[in-house]
Amino acid sequence: MALKAVVLGAGKGSRMKAVYPKVLHQVAGRPMIQWVLDAVAPLEPAQTVVVVKPDADRVVARLPEYAAPVVQARRLGTAHALQTALGVVDLEAGDSVLVVPADTPLITVDTLGRMARLHRSTGAAATCVTASMDDPTGYGRVVRDGWGRVKRIVEHADTTTSEREIEEINGGIYMFAGDYIRDALDHVEQNNAQGEYYLPDVVSILGAEGHTICAYRTTAEELAGVNTQDQLARAAAIMRGRINEAWMREGVWMLDPARVYIDAGVELAAGVRLYPGVHLEGNTAVRSGARIGPDVYLDDSEVGEGAKVWYSVIRGASIGRNTEVGPYVSLRPGTELLEDSKAGTFVEVKNSVVGRGAKVPHLSYVGDADIGDEANIGAGAITANYSWFGKHRTRVGRRAQIGSNTVLVAPVEVGDDAYTAAGSAITKNVPEGALGVERSAQREIPDYADHRRAPREAD
Ligand code: UD1
Ligand code: MG
After folding, report:
1. CA–CA separation, 270 vs 244, rounded Å?
2. Where residue 119 sits, what CATH number does that domain have?
3. What domain range is 202 assigned to?
């Protein structure tokens, strides 16, 4: 009485007009096929098989260990895809087969669970998931008999004018009794508008044989199939809405949830405030009381309690407690801003540690550097971290004051409590407490303005 799961992902994806495999298209930071596998996994199938196209290395590489790929060499339709999958499935008496297309990322584990219970309790030979859609164009329609029983499913391309009016659509998700499915698949023919072996035909074949067919009705939203780029965008918007609602229930504040983009896998704490234009991606975590946005892109980064980040791009960085970042800051991988520090306005930091309470306030580039606690990097000061021989580190000591427009030519060290004079190109270490000056003495040319003016007056 085991459950065997089959995910169909070998379709051509031709309506997407994409070079990239359709089932790897992302919805809220996760490939569509991953969403489907995640909804199936809690049902604990004894075996999970994924039907893939030939040369689908990229798809296979993304599959979890428990999912076995099976190649469908010729894409002859969904019935043929299931038949191919069953080639590697051991079906024993009383087993059920769950089939889910990889292009239905909004399906939930709740719906799959309820449908599985309905299927088992009715002893049906086939159970499909259906919904009423305002615009059912493109979907298979569910044809019921006078008693309301599902009789067959007709594909959009094969509908008569009256069938086209049917609003109840087939979600492409089924449970089949393992005892009958192989035989029913053998009876599917390809005499239809697309010349394909349609899996929905199994429903009418089993029904005609006198078996019980069930339909589990759910929302149109859950069954939204992704065949085109605009359907992908709509599915992604719905998924974002779900994610945002879930975070708001956890105590996250959003000024305008429609303009907040949070990927699955991001971690937020209660009391986080998100302004419009915020994108949170990858393994990003934001701690309590942090304020993000407007207009911030954060990827694989961490933001500490009470920090403020606005109008900035942050990748692979860690932002400490009560730190301020922005406006117009780029933090690149390997950057660590310790608590109470500051980066911005117009500042880039890469692979560097900015110490506690240290400040990089204006127009700086800090790369491969260790900035000591409470140091200050003056406006326009930069590290010259690259030479023909590679990258070098810069060390700025605690409480050091780097003058405006200083160039710190790495490898170089400025000691604790040391200074550099504005405009200096520092190529030698500055000892603790010293002032490093590297520039020519200023001289004045008296009456310069008169000299400038003189030739014109002579005309
Ligand atoms: C299918 C259903 C339709 C339903 C809709 C719901 C059929 C014939 N039609 O239509 O009734 O309303 O889903 O979204 O099943 N695939 C393979 N191998 C193939 C063909 C398809 O693995 O040879 C896979 C695709 O990758 C996809 C899934 O099966 O994940 C469904 O195929 P697709 O072409 O998207 O079918 P629809 O036209 O959407
Ligand atoms: Mg589809």
Report:
1. 13
2. 3.90.550.10
3. 3-217
